[in-house]
Design brief:
single chain, mainly alpha, 5 helices
Length: about 80
Amino acid sequence: MEKCILKKLQALVQKRTKPKQSKKVIVIDELRQEFKLEALLKYAEVTRSTFYYQLNRMKETDKYKEIKRRNNSYLSRKQRKIWI
C-alpha cells in the first residue's frame, strides 16, 4: 500500500515539497478501490472530514468562471493598449 501511495504522489508532485491535501485526496480516491479508506487516510495523514471536504470541492463547478473569463479578457485588452 505504501509503495502505491508514494508512486502516485511522486507522479503528481514533481517538486521536493510536501504534497498538498488536495493532491493526497486525489491519490486516496484512486486507491480506495484497492485498499481500505481508513488505512489510506491514516498513512497519508488526512482526516476523514478533510478527505470528503476536498473531494466535494473538486467535484463542484467554479461559480465565478464567467467572471474570471471576462476579467482576463479585459486585462489582456488593457495590456495590449499599454504596450502599443
